[in-house]
# Entry
Amino acid sequence: MKRHLISAADLSRGDALLILDTAEELASLADRPIKKLPTLRGRTVVNLFFEDSTRTRISFEAAAKRLSADVINFSAKGSSVAKGESLKDTALTLEAMGADAVVIRHSASGAAHRLAGWVRGSVVNAGDGTHEHPTQALLDAFTIRRRLGGGPGGVRGDGKPPRERGDPGGSSPRGGTALDGIRVTIVGDVLHSRVARSNVLLLSTLGAQVTLAAPPTLLPLAVDTWPCAVSYDLDAELPKSDVVMMLRVQQERMTAAYFPSVREYSRRYGLDAARMARLPDHAIVMHPGPMNRGVEIAAEVADSARSTIVEQVANGVTTRMAVLYLLLGGTEFPEVSS
Amino acid sequence: MTSWLIKGATPAAAGGQGSTAGHGATDLLLADGTITAVGAGLSEAGAHVLDAAGLLALPGLVDLHTHLREPGREDAETVETGTRAAALGGFTAVHAMANTEPVADTAGVVEQVWRLGRAAGHCDVQPVGAVTVGLAGSRLAELGTMADSAARVRVFSDDGRCVSDPLLMRRALEYVKAFDGVIAQHAQDPRLTEGAQLNEGEISGRLGLVGWPAVAEEAIIARDCLLAAHVGSALHVCHVSTAGSAEIIRWAKSKGWPVTAEVTPHHLLLTDELAVGYDPVFKVNPPLRTAADVAELRRALADGTIDCVATDHAPHPVEAKETEWPEAAFGMTGLETALRVVQQTMVDTGLLDWPGVADRMSVRPARIGRLTGHGVPLAVGGPANLTLYDPAAPAEAVSPNGASKSRNTPFAGMLLPGRVVATFLRGAPTVLDGKLA
# Structure
């Protein structure tokens, strides 16, 4: 694996499977009364958050703490950044304090990339502008694999349980499977979505067939160069989807003429109960949060048994533990003694 | 005044011969600011002698598009440092853009810049006047007063901003006819480029940076060509960056309309692929485009659709570039590397010969800028403004530390051929042996 995790494109299929398998092993920790490993004792992880994102920050914080790392939370508000300090100076300050890893959330695309040029520690991109959010894609892949992949009772894209069909050769050294043939439809504001960018890259690396469903205004101009299919018609895609991933739609997009009204957006691209009924029985519904209930996703869908939204949050911690562990601790995973 | 005898140079003036150094080599005698003799075996008692064997002699280069930053941003560049960089790049005249602080929208400011240029003495500084007050795009600046000032302004531009209001653009084009002026337009539809960071295409989509679509440039150029034709006024299009823009200008010229255009060295060489590392040294406006655009811009410069090369030298202090991409300033320096980039992209590729380079970097920009005493073929009685250039100098990596006060060159570390050996301004050397004289 590379030293930093900035883009999902940094991960080979082997890297991605290693992270997912490591997360799987770490997940067993969550069921134990003491949810802590000594692995990163004495290491310092800085959460450098220039954008408000309580859920991502606490997810990384929990992940680092469960590995016994020292965690420093650096929020831009009320700090030297608010007084005009540059990203470079902030980076040099963190460097002087000896950060082993910096988890950065920033409103500017490329900020994580720039930071990596100024610090010696590992940089983990926790969302940079409208570029990428690779750990979100990893936790999404982890969630898909648990629900549909190799796990007991999991169902493959062809509707058959995986054990019946036989693993298509996508298994990792630890035996975890990839997402070969799983059909994932990502719906909504792809143009401004770092979640979509990372998911398209990672899920396609893992063998999934990704389709983007969105109004043309919310797709990048050169989306035809991406490793995915594109559709303007959500209803046509639903019956052939194993996974539907709904993206958050920001109301201010309306004023920039991306779509006429929230109501119309919801009517054409929102996932309500009637649309959900078009999905195959085994299909799951995902959302990276925070949701706009009643806009891109109806409350009865968000709260249905198909919804993995709460699971995604829990899986976020284990997946981020795996990332921090592999970036800081090495490739050998210590036995979790029970 | 000291006279100079240049021995064995090969003149590459437009219309002249000498596309290869050494063939047609001759001597040039410079005295009292003019070329007093041209021919083989010249001698002159008391003259300084410069052995120019193997060197090309080009009429002194003229830049239509330079940001000298003074007054207001002397931390980035001054007239003194910017014109040193210009001389080292082989330029004998530069047009100083109007987006200073205060804006060059009054006779007072343009005269100040003009006087600073005279005082520095490294090359002629011809101020460009703003089209609208404060570059705000709402009412015309006092164009006539600037034209009548000591600075004799003829080129007007809100460069950095587009004169997007079609009525105001029409009026500006019409108004400057009274004093043979030209409006140099920064073609960028403001609504189509809100927050724009990088050419809209595969790279901007992948990097998650707001796209700067080609159509935002092309739509304004098309409109302005139609306006120029309608009122019969001179339009100059700044820093053409797309294949579509070149096509529109070719069409306008085919109609006989009074339209001229420039292309920057960086748009002749670099593409948006360079943005993948998010290094803002590659952030520029208009943005770097695709390889297909680069190829078409070269072709358009070669066939004369695009009249000239202009640097859009845009110095910025370190802190304006050592930042996140969206926060960073737009712009690149270019005076010291322009001729070398043109050799690499146009001459070494066989698209343009050296007389062609003299035409595109001296004769035509001087004509568009209404400059007298520049862009004149090297002949007896002509002004002794010339550049001696060694096209055979081995390719050398560009150093970021030049004479410009700023170091935001996108070419740092790139291998470029050629070397400016000497520059003469009215018979006096501003550069000798590649160093300031």
About this structure: The longest strand of chain A covers residues 122-128.
